[in-house]
Amino acid sequence: MEIGVEEIKKVVENFDVKGSSFSSRKFGNGHINDSYLIEDNSDGAEKFILRKINKYVFKNPDAVVNNSVKAVNHIREKLLAEGVKNYYDFLLTFIQTKTGGFAFVDKNSDYWCLTKFFADSYTVDFVETEKQAYEAAKAFGKFQKQLADADPNEFEIVIPDFHNLSKRISAYEKAAENASDERKEKAAEEMKTVDDFFRIVEKNNSLNESLSIPLRITHNDTKINNVMLDNKTDAAHCVIDLDTVMPGSVLSDFGDMVRTFTSPAEEDERDVSKVKMRLNIFKSLAAGYLEEMNGILTPSEKENLVFGAEMIVYEQAVRFLTDFFNNDMYYKTEYPEHNLVRTKNQFALLKSITEQSGEMEKIVTSLSAN
Q1: What is the mean pLDDT of each run of 10 residues along the chain (370 residues)?
Q2: Distance separating alpha carbons of residues 28 and 45, to the nearest angstrom
Q3: CA–CA dist 319, 50 (Å, integer)
Q4: What is the pLDDT of residue 38?
Q5: Which of 265, 241, 248 is CA-nearest to residue 126?
Q6: 3-state SS record for the chain
Q7: For burial by CB atoms within 10 Å, which of 221, 235, 279, 284 has the most?
């Protein structure tokens, strides 16, 4: 439910900002949190982004805020040590409340955070050019590199088992067991595809058991609309939306970039013939990411980056199919088979990735050698 202008104003007044007159409007296309662009009308000098943390998705909002601020502080210290004085041009700036914290909790126990808005920048929901793919992937790579020496034990898990593929499969199997015969009949082909690609689950379990993929601080929502791009040059300014920052695997972050950057179609496109992995976009993505992370990644991480793409796309398909069997309780849907369409879409992308995985591996190997 959208919040009124007066309510938004009352929230903003709890933060340490100089203005006395603010306007607001809904901002972005996020599916989880509500975001608003706040403009100081008293002198027009500053703009902010106000975000309400979804307490139904994030059961511990304090952890979300603490992780975000901790990551920003860690990176800021790095930039200052490097002599970067205008670090605020490349890093989210959280505004403190008048009581000294970084979140305001309202009468409904909702958590709000305020950050400075990046002027002269834009976001896109869809990768249109190789330049955008390169810049956004480079930004996510730099974000991970700047946090590479952060201690994962000092960050909290904000969504337990977020990329636990075994638990995703267990949830899927339970949902399928309880699903209506009608829904299982409609999804018969997709259920077979889950089984056909079960090797992904087995390899993921093997990697987990071997402990060959180190635990790092990762972003966990590496869509291109979480990178601010310069209006004139398309260069990346900053990674935003830090709500899911927590300990994780670079394979997940890299994989989700491939999932959301490379397909020329939306993830609910009904015509799956339009869904494919664009190799030129992948090459630019990999180039930007490895330019930052080449000296950080272990050999095992580099060897499994392409597998990370397979894993994340498979996981997302399983999540959509699970929700379809659960009568669409998690994802917002616009028609009865919306989640099934999404499942078909993701499996089409997975098949395109596996068909081109050899070329993708060659690209990663070549860039890793540079």
Answers
A1: 74 84 67 74 76 87 96 94 86 93 93 90 90 97 96 95 96 98 98 98 95 95 93 91 95 97 95 97 98 96 98 98 95 93 98 98 92
A2: 21
A3: 29
A4: 82
A5: 265
A6: CCCCHHHHHHHHCCECCCCCCEEEEECCCCCCCEEEEEEECCCCCCEEEEEEECCCCCCCHHHHHHHHHHHHHHHHHHHHHCCCCCHHHCCCCECCECCCCCCEECCCCCEEEEEECCCCEECCCCCCCHHHHHHHHHHHHHHHHHCCCCCHHHCCCCCCCCCCHHHHHHHHHHHHHHCCHHHHHHCHHHHHHHHHCCHHHHHHHHHHHHCCCCCEEECCCCCHHHEEEECCCCCEEEECCCCCCEEECHHHHHHHHHHHHCCCCCCCCCCHHHCCCCHHHHHHHHHHHHHHHCCCCCHHHHHCHHHHHHHHHHHHHHHHHHHHHCCCCCCCCCCCCHHHHHHHHHHHHHHHHHHCHHHHHHHHHHHHCC
A7: 284
* Residue 86: predicted pLDDT: 85
Provide the token pair at 220.
């966990």
Tokens 């860690």, located at residue:
74
* Residue recorded with tokens 């799956």: 272
pLDDT in the model for residue 32: 55
What angle, 0 to 180 degrees and rounded to 10, lies between the N-to-C axes of helices 357-368 and 338-355?
60
Tokens 């190799």 sit at which residue?
279
CA dist., res. 215 & res. 238, Å (int): 23
**pLDDT in the model for residue 25:** 74
pLDDT at 21: 66
Please give the pLDDT value at position 29: 55
**Alpha-carbon span 181 to 299, nearest angstrom:** 46
Pairing of strands 47-53, 104-105: unpaired
